[in-house]
Amino acid sequence: MKLYIDSREKDDSLIATIIERCVEEGEEWEIKQLAVGDYLWEGKNADGEEIQVCIEHKTVKDLTASKASAHLETQLADLRQFPNYLLLIDGKFDFRQARYGVFYSPKLKNGLLTSIALRDRVPYVHVEYRHELVDVLFMCRDAGIKGERTEIIERHSKTLSRKDASLYMWHCIPGIGESRARELNKIVRFGPFVKSCMTVGVDTTMEERGIPKKLLPKKARAFLEEM
Length: 227
Hints:
The protein is α/β, with parallel strands linked by helices. It folds into 2 domains: 142 residues, Rossmann fold (3-Layer(aba) Sandwich), CATH 3.40.50; 64 residues. Helix 6 crosses helix 7 and helix 8 packs across helix 9.
């Protein structure tokens, strides 16, 4: 088997560790720009069957940012063109930090991961430490099943501006349809609203921002209160 490493991977320490592991296990490796994914295993297994396993690597910070901008959806759509694929997430979810103005609670984290597995139909593994990441990367080599070699025939492209990302996040709240999301987004961006809710509560934030209850139905308010 041969491991291709995307040349745009900027973590030199991680790349060095992966290459060292390749040398230890007698695997070929090459750094080049990949059309899809960050790592790609190619070759034949012990039975002589062609194997391809594509892995998209995301740190927790990158994952939350790309989800807010809707870029994650396009990357996962690209990933599904391969016979074997995996989203490999590393790092700890820090609920005190925000990207794109989106504050992640444990409930939002679990919703995000559930959405990836069920809605996007992409298996994922979440590890907290880099040595675990390398272990899983090499497990992918051994777990791949045979499949025709994939030549990328379509690249998806959809990245939202911060304003559109805010609209997208409003739309993710239960009970908020497209029209309500647009009206809410005109009044306040999602990130500042959620930050205020976490500080003073949903009802107080709605009153301060002048948001009528018809725009935030009971189901949506209950969801926000649990964040």
